[in-house]
């Protein structure tokens, strides 16, 4: 486990971006106009933005200079080959297909492989992954180990996939209805928890025996590899690159949102070994994303990704990164805020239903907490609970909620200092003082999929 001294940033600041504070009446007006949905708040009205760690990283001087040398040729750009080599060095798969972001990689993969009635297992599907599977009429099945739902248990690899349940799924659905299996590293929707190499090996063996292709959802692979180095026996002396290569050697491919561990603001890819499948993915890519050597990105974006993939493997960076996030967790715990333990790689997950015990699940305590935090201090967080993952039961017509009702405080990479984290903790302290008066919410408008992005709500 990381120690809890204030982490020192292994970089200094060359460019700054001013932050503006808002007044309480201003925030009240903003909330009403936003339909009480933090996704509808203009970023200018946010003081500290912990909505997501996706696409919000600060790029390094070398990445910015990469933008200048980006080759913008339509086909066969030099930047593509640098990008391809950077991905292959870490992932080790034969084909690398760029996409504009992670969900585009998911879409071309699932569109090509899935039919109605198929099932895709995962530890826990991220919301876009789930949606991309469900629009094909297939089932996104979550098979994470039960420890994942015990937020007080300090286990090292709570992102692991339950192999007994995977075997049961294969038996009940049949191999033919499972065109691929996925594993999300780190497991974002389950608290940003890592998966162990032992588990990866075991899952891989099982899937290979049944000839089911195995793909990683690899957005935060470097953070996962760092946890393996720190927590799994036998990996303490291995480099992050060696660990990452070993992880990927057990799979057939990966989808990646470069907006996380490639330290860039936009980009993604799918990478895989299967020649015929790669051909089909490229055909689908050309229709909407672009030619296979740019896939919806500019040459400069490919350049920045290639550079980011080198920087993210640095141990100094990962040590700082994980302890920076853990530091926020520690500040919150000291103030009595209930959180998921251990702290994940990219975010602290607050247990909103414990923080606001007077708000029932159908009044969305997580959502209420995101609003209270913004109202108090202009801090933006995101609910990962009943609004994001609640689903109507087809038989009873009642809404079913995910096991944990959380608010995620996602920490952008290399963006905020430890003082910002102190400001967040202080805001929580103030919110806690008036928590009895915080009210629940009712949804007044929603879309059929990914409703949290666009829903409008009102206080009850
Ligand atoms: N998979 C995981 C595990 C993710 O966390 C995300 C994005 C995606 C896939 C999709 O990638 O955004 O590039 O299309 N997660 C962001 C988040 C949005 O806030 O956690 P994308």
Short characterization:
This protein is 40% helix and 13% strand. By secondary structure, it is of the alpha/beta class. Strands 2-8-7-6-5 form a five-stranded mixed β-sheet, sandwiched between helices. Strands 9-14-11 form a three-stranded antiparallel β-sheet.
Question: What CATH architecture label of the largest domain applies?
Answer: 3-Layer(aba) Sandwich
- Report the span from N to C terminus: 41 Å
Number of domains: 2
Strand order of the largest sheet: 2-8-7-6-5
Radius of gyration based on Cα positions:
21 Å
Which spans of ≥5 residues are poorly predicted at pLDDT below 50?
Answer: none
| CATH fold descriptor of the largest domain | Aspartate Aminotransferase, domain 2
Estimated share of beta-strand residues: 5-15%
Number of strands: 16
Q: Which cofactor or ligand species appear?
A: ligand F0G
Explained architecture:
The strands form six sheets. A five-stranded mixed sheet has the order 2-8-7-6-5, sandwiched between helices. A three-stranded antiparallel sheet has the order 9-14-11. A two-stranded parallel ribbon has the order 1-10. It is built from 16 helices and 16 strands. It folds into two domains: 24-53 and 314-459, Alpha-Beta Complex (Aspartate Aminotransferase, domain 1); 61-311, 3-Layer(aba) Sandwich (Aspartate Aminotransferase, domain 2), CATH 3.40.640. The mean pLDDT is 96. It has helices at residues 24-33, 61-69, 78-91, 102-113, 127-134, 163-173, 197-209, 221-231, 240-249, 275-288, 299-311, 315-334, 352-355, 365-377, 386-389, 418-433, and strands at 48-49, 95-99, 119-122, 139-142, 181-184, 214-217, 253-257, 268-272, 347-351, 379-380, 382-384, 391-392, 399-400, 406-410, 441-445, 456-459. The chain is of the alpha/beta class. Helix 4 (102-113) packs across helix 10, helix 12 runs parallel beside helix 16 and helix 14 (365-377) packs across helix 16 (418-433). The chain is 40% helix and 13% strand. It binds ligand F0G. Ligand F0G binds at residues 52, 54, 101-103, 126, 128-129, 184, 188, 217, 219, 257, 259, 268.
């Amino acid at each position: 486990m990381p120690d809890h001294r204030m982490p020192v940033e292994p970089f200094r600041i060359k460019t700054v971006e001013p932050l503006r504070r808002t007044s309480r009446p201003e925030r009240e007006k903003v909330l009403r106009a936003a339909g009480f949905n933090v996704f509808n708040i203009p970023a200018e009205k946010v003081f500290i933005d912990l909505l997501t760690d996706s696409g919000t990283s600060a790029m390094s001087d070398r990445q910015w200079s990469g933008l200048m040398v980006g080759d913008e040729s339509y086909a066969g750009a030099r930047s593509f080959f640098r990008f391809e080599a950077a991905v292959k060095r870490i992932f080790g798969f034969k084909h690398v297909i760029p996409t504009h972001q992670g969900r585009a990689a998911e879409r071309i993969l699932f569109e090509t492989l899935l039919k109605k009635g198929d099932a895709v297992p995962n530890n826990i599907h991220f919301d876009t992954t789930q949606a991309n599977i469900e629009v094909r009429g297939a089932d996104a099945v979550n098979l994470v180990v039960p420890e994942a739902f015990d937020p007080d248990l300090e286990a090292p690899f709570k992102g692991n996939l339950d192999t007994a349940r995977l075997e049961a799924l294969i038996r009940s659905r049949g191999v033919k209805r499972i065109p691929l299996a996925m594993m999300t590293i780190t497991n974002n929707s389950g608290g940003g928890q890592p998966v162990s190499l032992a588990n990866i090996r075991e899952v891989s063996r099982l899937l290979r025996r049944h000839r089911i292709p195995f793909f990683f959802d690899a957005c935060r692979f470097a953070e996962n590899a760092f946890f393996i180095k720190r927590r799994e026996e036998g990996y303490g002396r291995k480099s992050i690159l060696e660990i990452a290569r070993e992880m990927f050697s057990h799979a057939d491919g990966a989808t990646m949102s470069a907006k996380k561990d490639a330290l860039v603001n936009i980009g993604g890819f799918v990478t895989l070994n299967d020649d015929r499948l790669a051909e089909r993915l490229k055909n689908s890519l050309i229709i909407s994303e672009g030619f296979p050597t740019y896939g919806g990105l500019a040459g400069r974006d490919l350049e920045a990704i290639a550079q980011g993939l080198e920087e993210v493997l640095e141990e100094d960076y990962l040590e700082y990164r994980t302890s920076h996030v853990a530091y926020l967790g520690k500040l919150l715990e000291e103030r009595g805020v209930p959180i998921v333990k251990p702290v994940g790689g990219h975010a602290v997950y607050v247990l909103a239903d414990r923080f606001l015990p007077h708000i029932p699940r159908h009044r969305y305590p997580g959502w209420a907490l995101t609003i209270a935090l913004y109202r108090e201090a202009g801090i933006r967080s995101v609910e990962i609970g009943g609004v994001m993952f609640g689903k109507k039961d087809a038989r009873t017509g009642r809404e079913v909620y995910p096991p944990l009702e959380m608010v995620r405080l996602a920490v952008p990479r290399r963006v905020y200092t430890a003082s910002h984290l102190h400001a967040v903790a202080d805001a929580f302290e103030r919110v806690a003082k008036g928590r009895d008066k915080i009210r629940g919410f009712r949804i007044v408008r929603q879309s059929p999929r990914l409703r949290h992005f666009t829903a409008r709500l009102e206080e009850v």
